[in-house]
Amino acid sequence: MKPSLLTFSFLLLFVFSLAFSTLVDEQVVVDTNGNPIFPGGRYYLMPPIFGAAGGGVKLGHDTESSTCPVAVFQDYSEVVNGLQVKFIIPGISPGIIFTGTTLNISFVEKPQCVESSIWAIVAGWPAWIGIGGDEDHQESEILTGKFNIQKHGLGYKFVFCPTYTIPPGSCYDIVKIDDVNGRRLILPMDDVSAPFEFVLFDAGDATRNSVV
Length: 212
Ligand SMILES: *[C@@H]1O[C@H](CO)[C@@H](O)[C@H](O)[C@H]1NC(C)=O
Fold this sequence. Notes:
Blueprint: H1 5-24, E1 43-46, E2 57-60, E3 71-74, E4 85-88, E5 104-107, E6 119-122, E7 127-131, E8 142-143, E9 145-152, E10 155-162, E11 172-173, E12 175-179, E13 182-187, E14 199-202, H2 208-211
Antiparallel strand pairs: 1-14, 2-3, 3-13, 4-5, 6-7, 6-8, 7-13, 9-10, 10-11, 12-13
Bound molecules: 2-acetamido-2-deoxy-beta-D-glucopyranose (NAG).
């Protein structure tokens, strides 16, 4: 049988995708279905293993006296998916997110009392993960810098590279810590704390529990 043009096109596509995957596949950030994540997608951040590691991310109060929930927590319960997050990368990119791609992490929903739901590092001891801008954190400074995703264990971790570090160019893992108010995400800027490890569940997909 003479190979048709269609067969040929499929073959070409196959060879092309094979070449592409050999080059970059390892670094494409994928969801639990193996699909590349993309800006505009909505995801739940969950520990890779269902159980004691807990559930998804949510908002809570930094201190007892704070009126607006601007601090990022992880739910203790593995059956809680938490809040949906999305990723923002500069407009003219192809839309594929690789490990190391500079991006912003944002909750899909925004509480009324805050200017934005983009994740930010709030200075403190330790620095902590919050949402909003300078106007939402009058008492402490927002650290400038860049977020990216890196592979870690069975999933991924978030890394933050502050603009000003000693030595220059240092990056730090976002980790979780048990605080009086719950399990919080912080940036301790040391090498000893275990990163907050997560996988990405497509929030448009209801099959989360069958994966883990
Ligand atoms: C992330 O958000 C900050 C604050 O809104 C902004 O200054 C920065 O340009 C954004 N970066 C990306 C990669 O979208």
